[in-house]
Amino acid sequence: MSDSRPDPVVKRGDDIEYEAVSAAEGMHKGVLISDDDDAPHFAIRRFVLEPGASVPNHTNEVEHEQYVLSGTYTVGIGDEEYDVEAGDSLLIPAGVPHWYRNDSDEEGSFICAVPNGDDAIELVDDE
Description:
Elements: E1 18-20, E2 25-33, E3 42-60, E4 64-70, E5 72-77, E6 80-85, E7 89-92, E8 98-101, E9 108-115, E10 121-123
Antiparallel strand pairs: 1-2, 2-3, 3-8, 3-9, 3-10, 4-7, 4-9, 5-6, 5-8
């Protein structure tokens, strides 16, 4: 019987490349672990929200689990707004509109876990 488990992966923080998120002013994303690393089910990513950053209202085809690492910022989920800070956890169900805004003078950051695979992102018209 062959062992189909993936090999363990350890990535150093300095090895993670961050890129600007095109639809979001002042947000950067680093992919920590994904299917590119042979992770069979989930990807984890780290997002950084610069002071003054905003992410427009949008939906994703897949659910998001998030853990706030640093800073204080506002997240809109559905019809509610939440001020979040380091140590807070969020579940954003698939298809639910959500947005981010960092009105503070400090960077905010969070870890986001999503299922591997394709994700359709659609901007939501707030008008």
